[in-house]
Specification:
By secondary structure, the protein is mainly α. The chain has helices spanning 16-22, 25-28, 32-48, 54-73, 85-97, 110-145, 166-191, 210-216, 226-231, 234-261, 288-311, 325-348, 354-361, 368-377, 382-399, 408-414, 422-425, 428-433, 443-458; strands spanning 151-156, 159-165, 193-194, 221-222, 268-269, 351-352. The protein has a two-stranded antiparallel sheet. The chain is elongated.
Amino acid sequence: MSKMMWAGRFSKEVDSKVNDFNSSISFDARMYKFDIMGSIAHATMLGEQNIIDPEESKVIIEGLKGILSDIESGKLSFDPNAEDIHMFVEAELTERIGDAGKRLHTARSRNDQVALDIKLYLKHETVEIAALTKELITTVIDIAKQHLDTVMPGYTHLQRAQPITFAHHLMAYAQMLTRDLTRLHDCLYRMDVMPLGSCALAGTTYPLNRKRTAELLDFREITMNSLDGVSDRDFCIELCSCISILMMHLSRFSEEIIMWCSWEFKFIELDDAYSTGSSIMPQKKNPDITELIRGKTARVYGDLQTLLTMMKGLPLAYNKDMQEDKEAIFDAVDTVKLCISTFIPMLATMTVNKQNMRTAAAKGFINATDCADYLVKKGLPFRTAYKITGTLVALCIEKNTTLEDLPLSEYKKLCDTFDSDVYEAISLDTCVMQRNVDGGPAPSAVKRQIEALENTLNGIAF
């Protein structure tokens, strides 16, 4: 009981099982650096405000720096019997510097301390996730630049639909990931508000300079309601939501890679370093990384659901339920970082089978829309042109041929407007090259898209 900082109110030892159940040191120890950073800033402000003796403030700060150094060098290990990282650091400090260490917690509660720690930690992690996301976007763009002229089928309902380029397909993911980057940026802005000074729930009678503490910790502003300051976990939920959407995009990308690797498509081949084999089938080369990313996406969704459900019924202000925020958001952060950092080199080292893509694009009548557009440009109403082209496709299926190989005489039987220039109009290259509208698959349009996206990326700073 004597080891518990809050033990004065109690006349009995807490049951050992309750201590174990209550403890969070096993997972919140990762915040040690940010806990110590927050305590250093708090001690600095307390000394500057003469709330504690400035000389004792200096002793506390040097003691905290020593603890940080010893943890990072491996000289000091976390005590598994400590209640949490905050109590571990404070107890270690008091053991090292004596009564001066007991003054550190003046005008502070674990409620606002933990809110500060997790914000500091997640600010750091958000920047790291953003950097990885930006690297992934750059990797996608680099591959797209190499495949501006690589024709492939575009799909709807997983059916071949219209010809596009591999660059255009890749850039769709670059756009998704850029939205993820902007979401992270916006999330970080709302997270960047310092709660320390809210204390347990009602602030304090001490003359704190909260803005000074925020300045020392590089927060843009302070929270303006002490109840909200200690009970807010919106920033955890919002970050987990951003990560969930990002994981959804990675999962969609992974699904396509899985299909493209199959013998049914064979559009790409992953490097051996990013594939696995079968224990019984020697011919197998499995895209396990992408399959794991699909699976881990569900895991992150579960983390988000945990956070939302945990918070939905909590009255103000702090409740112990909120200790459950950390494992969920930590897992989401760890998972997305692992997935992106593995996805980047896997993508960068894959082999693109350009000929297989073009061969697939030559089948499936994906130039049928262009055939209809050919008639529209010669004056026919679109619906009339659509019906004629549909009849031509049915004829080709019956004769086991393609629109490119169907004799002109067959075209003219259905519509005399057709002429020999129809073959140029429905060639795959023409179909792609003429789609030069902004956002289209023509190489020139994709180049403009890439340039615009690179400018956007240069403007997003963390």
